[in-house]
């Protein structure tokens, strides 16, 4: 344990951090009033340099996926990080800032002094975040985390970005938590498929006949990709993409030079188009829309993303619908309803996702088969639902949104409420998507806007676009404008006039 001279107080900016290095270690220094704090310099989620984030409303917001930490003590406020920041001691000597090279001690898991059992079904983004949050918030009882996938609880978002691009072997997909965490936190991981739920008797049954009774349960079973219901869709080279196993099958089958037909123009479809093209395949997208993502990003950014794909050799086919996959024991072509026949060696289907709620036959469902929850993510007494299966009230409107960070935020809200809290979702939905080496960030959930303005050129990032309605920002889309988006993630929680937002973008861009 030793102190190191790290910076001068006056070097540390007001609304962002300063990165310093101590023995190769990256540390971020933050001002908290007239005091300073020192934390680990890289985000515990995926390693973003936290000094490139923004400080706002007493929080440090990560530049990459907008995790938020309290600047006072580094406590986790918003995922996708699941840990608080490691904190280091600071000593001021005049204007000089000296930082300890050893972190202050972490808290311990709560004592096992609670007789209750909480069961979580699904160990994906939401389920894993919920288990971690229960312990973080002091729950000492039993936590059983059930998932049908072996080794569940990994970063699903890399499947369509890096795994099927051949850049990340399936066995190197980052786990959300390591084995040591589950052991230390006494989280029991059970591999099994839930077949039914008897909510009145608080009992879950697995397909192998085992049953589990609970005091409270969280359903976090995510989505199942919509399958292609066409002749030939059962051929072995027709793929869906949701799980590590499916990504593995795709990358094992794909060979550079082959022709892949991507059916659909969803985010997963176009991320897969980008990844497989980068892996060296000839990629055709059979798209329903001439401009992809126009409903979310508007036509200008949608066209720019399509142009980016085309500049990299992806071919868009927007006439006709798939009618049949031709081939006897392997895919040969996709036959369209307009008579065209497009040759293909592989087909990847990305036409949407359905909530995985089949086992919950007795619960009332929405039209899309999702489970309706109240603002606190509660389905009924002792039962919560979070993530891709949940329809929740967002600004008074029922919404089901398939975003990683939102699923984990809902999970943290459910965890707090299972412990007697009364938390509601009050944040701005956020997601990111990756195309040919560029990350696009989106904040908001706007279905309508009456104004859109850009700084920079969507065809040549960096750029940021603000969508306004009645003079207030309802959404923002950007590429390579991470600090400004980190700031907007915090400021858009309250009605933010468009003019004020542009001032922030100028100050933080
Ligand atoms: C390839 C891909 C890329 C993505 N990229 C992004 C991105 O870049 N940014 C973003 O914001 N979002 C992205 N998403 C969306 C994001 O992954 C989801 O919104 C998020 O995973 C939802 O979390 P969840 O916990 O509800 O579901 P999941 O993470 O899918 O977890 C559900 C878990 O439940 C288990 N399960 C299901 N049924 C049962 C059962 N009956 N019994 C036991 N276990 C069961 C499943 O095995 C799974 O592990 C991506 C999704 C995919 C598929
Ligand atoms: S790296 Fe910080 S939230 Fe992902």
From TrEMBL:
The keyword Iron-sulfur applies. The keyword Secreted does not apply. Signal peptide: none annotated. Keywords: 2Fe-2S, FAD, Flavoprotein, Iron, Iron-sulfur, Metal-binding, Oxidoreductase. It holds the Pfam family Pyr_redox_2. Residues 4-99 form the Rieske domain. InterPro entries: FAD-oxidoreductase/Apoptosis (IPR050446), FAD/NAD-bd_sf (IPR036188), FAD/NAD-binding_dom (IPR023753), FAD/NAD-linked_Rdtase_dimer_sf (IPR016156), Rieske_2Fe-2S (IPR017941), Rieske_2Fe-2S_sf (IPR036922). Its cofactor is FAD. This is FAD-dependent oxidoreductase.
């Amino acid at each position: 344990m030793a102190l190191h001279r790290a910076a001068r107080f006056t070097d540390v900016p007001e609304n962002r951090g300063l990165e310093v290095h101590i023995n190769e270690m990256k540390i971020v220094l933050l001002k908290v009033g007239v005091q300073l704090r020192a934390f680990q310099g890289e985000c515990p989620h995926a390693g973003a340099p936290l000094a490139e984030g923004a400080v706002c409303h007493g929080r440090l917001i990560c530049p990459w996926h907008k995790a938020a930490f309290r600047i006072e003590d580094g406590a986790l406020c918003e995922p996708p990080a699941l840990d608080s920041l490691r904190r280091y001691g600071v000593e001021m000597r005049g204007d000089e800032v000296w930082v300890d090279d050893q972190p202050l001690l972490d808290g311990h898991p709560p004592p096992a002094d609670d007789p209750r059992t909480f069961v979580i079904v699904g160990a994906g983004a939401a389920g894993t975040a919920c288990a971690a949050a229960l312990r973080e918030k002091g729950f000492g009882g039993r936590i059983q985390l059930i998932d049908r996938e072996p080794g569940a609880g990994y970063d699903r978002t890399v499947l369509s970005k890096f795994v099927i691009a051949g850049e990340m072997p399936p066995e190197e997909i980052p786990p959300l938590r390591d084995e040591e965490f589950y052991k230390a936190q006494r989280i029991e991981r059970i591999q099994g498929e839930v077949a039914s739920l008897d909510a009145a008797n608080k009992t879950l049954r697995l397909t192998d006949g085992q049953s589990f009774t609970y005091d409270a349960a969280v359903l976090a079973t995510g989505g199942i990709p919509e399958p292609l219901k066409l002749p030939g869709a059962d051929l072995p080279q027709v793929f869906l993409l949701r799980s590590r196993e499916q990504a593995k099958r795709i990358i094992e089958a794909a060979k550079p030079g082959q022709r892949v037909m991507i059916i659909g123009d969803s985010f997963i479809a176009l991320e897969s188009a980008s990844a497989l093209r980068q892996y060296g395949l000839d990629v055709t997208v059979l798209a329903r829309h001439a401009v992809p993502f126009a409903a979310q990003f508007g036509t200008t950014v949608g066209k720019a993303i399509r142009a980016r794909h085309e500049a990299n050799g992806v071919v868009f086919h927007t006439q006709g619908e798939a009618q049949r996959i031709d081939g006897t024991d392997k895919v040969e072509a996709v036959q369209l309803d307009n008579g065209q026949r497009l040759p293909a060696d592989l087909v990847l289907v990305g036409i949407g996702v359905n909530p995985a709620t089949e086992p919950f036959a007795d619960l009332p469902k929405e039209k899309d088969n999702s489970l309706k929850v109240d603002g606190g993510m509660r389905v009924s007494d002792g039962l919560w639902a979070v993530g891709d299966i949940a329809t929740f009230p967002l600004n008074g409107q029922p919404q089901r949104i398939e975003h990683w960070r939102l699923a984990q935020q809902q999970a943290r809200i459910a965890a707090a409420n299972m412990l007697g809290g009364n938390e509601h979702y009050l944040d701005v939905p956020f997601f990111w998507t990756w195309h040919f080496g560029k990350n696009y960030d989106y904040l908001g959930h706007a279905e309508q806007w009456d104004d859109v303005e850009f700084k920079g050129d969507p065809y040549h990032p960096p750029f940021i676009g603000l969508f306004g309605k009645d003079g207030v920002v309802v959404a923002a889309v950007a590429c390579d404008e991470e600090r400004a988006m980190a700031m907007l993630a915090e400021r858009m929680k309250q009605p933010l006039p468009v003019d004020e937002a542009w001032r922030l973008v100028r100050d933080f861009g």
